[in-house]
Amino acid sequence: MMELKLSEIAKKISAQLVGKDLTVTGLSTIDNPKPGTLSFITSKKLKKRLADCCCAAVIVPPGIESDRHSLLVKDDPYLGFGLAMRIFHNTHRYPQPRIEPTAVISDTARIGHDIYIGHNVIVKDNVQIGNNCVIHSGVFIGENSVIGDRCYIYPNSVIMHEVTIGDRVAIYSGAIIGSDGFGYTKMGGGFIKIPQVGVVVIEDDVEIGAGTTIDRATIGETRIGTGSIIDNLVQIAHNCNIGPGCILCAQVGLAGTTILGKNVILAGQVGVAGHLTIGDGTIVEAQSGVPKDLPAGSVVFGYPARDAKLSRRIEAIISHLPDYIQRLRNLERKVNDLEE
Predict the structure, then answer these.
(1) pLDDT digit string (tens) for 119-160?
(2) Is 316 helix (H, G, I), strand (E, B) or coil?
(3) 238 counts as catalytic
(4) Whole-angstrom Cα distance, residue 206 to residue 245?
């Protein structure tokens, strides 16, 4: 069990300690507090939760006082709690470096040092894997793919041929990177498949959620920018280019050749039509459909996605339409009666 003084934690998360410099043994939530632990609240509205909280200390925003607890004061308490989580817990579990005997690794593959390769991993010809990587059981890595240093690949992920992955990338179970793009065209009475001969490039510090699919380019590359975070069950089609620092939440779907600028946020179940550009810093709210380009700094909602405030006004009006229609009919009857 790890034990830390509050003064140590305060220094590491850039918070101000108010009260006794207690020792805490872990973390807990304000909904399920545990004695001797550190918790957090995000706003003054939650101050009343401190009255029956048995935690030793709480991370709070400025302006909150407590006679019962030591406090770590930070402008963004949730960030503070996240940083504290990183102190008490590793993001990933690191097994002892070794290659399990059931792994199948090509003689032409180049493997770095201090690496773990799990049972039934398949590493094909001319693959390069960097140092300090963890590759769990059942992972497939196709020909000529390159994986950087300190990558962490969870069980049963698939990395197809000619995929380039940067440093410190995390790929969660069931993700498939480098499958063929959805390229077909009509011929006669049916369809023919267009060969998908491009590549996928994943830059440094990217996270790719479980069950996510990132298709290779038809020609050229599909690219995911540095520091982007992709949730579970996201579909990224051929030739998409995701800028740095983007967040794509669960069940987002990008059609081919979608371009996202930097720091774009697509909330859950957003769909984006192909061959579009979404500008830097844009936020697309949940379940929206984007049929056209969006300028930088947009905040949009609905289908078709439009300014979020306008969209909500339209939604509010739609909910009253039956009443408005009835009132119009009543007025129409009165006008007709007057004319008669």
Answers:
(1) 999 999 999 999 999 999 999 999 999 999 999 999 999 999
(2) helix
(3) yes
(4) 9
Q: How many C-beta neighbours within 10 Å does residue 150 have? A: 18
> Among the options 161, 238, 275, 320, which is catalytic?
238
Q: Which residues form the domain of 26?
A: 4-88
**Boundary of a domain, candidates 37, 57, 88:** 88
Strand bridging mode 241-242 / 259-260 = parallel
Please state, as a whole number, how many other Cβ atoms lie within 10 Å of the Cβ of residue 136. 22
Count of beta carbons in the 10 Å neighbourhood of residue 70: 20
Does residue 340 form part of some domain? no
In this predicted model, what pLDDT tens digit does every residue of 156-197 receive, in sequence order? 999 999 999 999 999 999 999 999 999 999 999 999 999 999
Angle of helix 321-339 relative to helix 308-319, nearest 10 degrees, comes to 60
For residue 300, tell me if it sits in a domain. yes
- State whether 54 and 104 are in the same domain: no
**CATH number of the domain bearing residue 15:** 3.40.1390.10
List the one residue out of 243, 242, 250, 246 whose CA is nearest residue 271: 250
Name beta bridge partners: 223: 201, 241
Number of domains in the chain: 2
Work out the angle at residue 10's Cα, subtended by the Cα atoms of residues 7 and 12, and round it to the nearest 5 degrees.
110
Q: Do both 261 and 176 map to the same domain?
A: yes
pTM of the model: 0.88
